[in-house]
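In the laboratory, one determines a bound structure by crystallizing the protein with its ligand and collecting diffraction data. In a computational setting the workflow is compressed into a single prediction: the sequence and the ligand go in, and a structural description comes out. We illustrate the idea with cytidine-5'-monophosphate.
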Amino acid sequence: MLKDKRIILGVSGGIAVYKAVELLRLLTKAGAEVHVIMTRAAQEFVTPLTFQTLSGNPVHTELFNLIAEREISHISLADRSDLFMIVPATANIVGKIAAGIADDMLTTTVMATKSPVLIAPAMNVNMFTNPIYRENEERLIRFGYRFVAPVTGTLACGWEGQGKLAPPEVIFEAALETLTLKDLAGRTIMVTAGPTREEIDPVRYISNHSSGKMGYALARAATRRGARVILISGPTNLAVPDGVELLRVESACEMQAAVMAHVEGCQAVIKAAAVADYRPIDRKSEKIKKKDETATIELIKNPDILAGLGAMKSPPFLVGFAAETGMVREYAEKKLTEKNLDMIVANDVSQIDAGFNVDTNRALLLFKNGSSVECGLMSKDKLADKILDYIVTGLAPC
Ligand code: C5P
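The predicted complex, in structure-token form:
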């Protein structure tokens, strides 16, 4: 996701430095080329060797380094970066940048950069709420610097309050968001995700193995690309991506009601949810008691939400999913036509690395015009971006 991106990771001296190591791993895993600059205080917490080993690049600690200075390293670093991050950022570093002080490698390089700057502060709650710090932060925000707010919790100093460095995954997401082209700005996209639950009685239900991971990855990616996202989710244990409008539902009928109530104004609907095809015809109001050797539950077909959307007079761009255990292309082609879809994402859920409950997928994309694309094994995040690329191409210009 960050292939070909060059990121400077500035590390200033606070107890949260060790979390910057975790962030570095996330950045390099996503393909970014990361160059680390450490302040003197940061080196008291973690040695440069750790950052050097994990980034694969020399760590910059000194402003005046005779070898690097042949090419004026702070200027060449600043010039060639796509994103400048400072994690963790102390009150001191924020104050220095806000005051225009450039007296070490980190402050000098950030002063020289034209790339976006993303700052994740971490400090004692009284420092964080100090009006001097607040004013410094606000001043930088006015100049276009972006901040990832610290979270509330027990701080290293023993105080309770806001000041804990945001989790590395949250800072990573903010980096991705900053670097992502907003090609879905002005669009509203609805995503459905997860399974549905069809109640049998107050304690039991019929459901399926869908984790919701693919739908949530789509919602996250579309938000990052600037879309307004309405996420209609069946029961899942997943973290709700920042910025999405979430509507929780349980059954297929509830999902249908939520979809129909919000579809107006959506330019695309991506139905990644694994909707139960049938529900018990008669939901018992009391728990069914154990009696005979065999028991029968009579089922009735659920409404096909996607087919309903496909039958609309002027439907939005419709993307369906087809989770199959064989004859994947044949079944997917049938659904594409029968439900009047623009695109269908088909996968064989009998494979262990694709489909339900895993972070990867292996999909076949089929389009209305008869063309198709095989997507080999990739993360659900990457597949989400691929699907959105086709949606961007398929949507009429704003
Ligand atoms: O027909 P099938 O259930 O295999 O089709 C899968 C696609 O249709 C998925 O995109 C799913 O979200 C959608 N679907 C639906 N309503 C149903 C069943 C499936 O919208 N009742």
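The chain has a mean pLDDT of 94. Keep in mind that any predicted model is a hypothesis to be tested, not a measurement.
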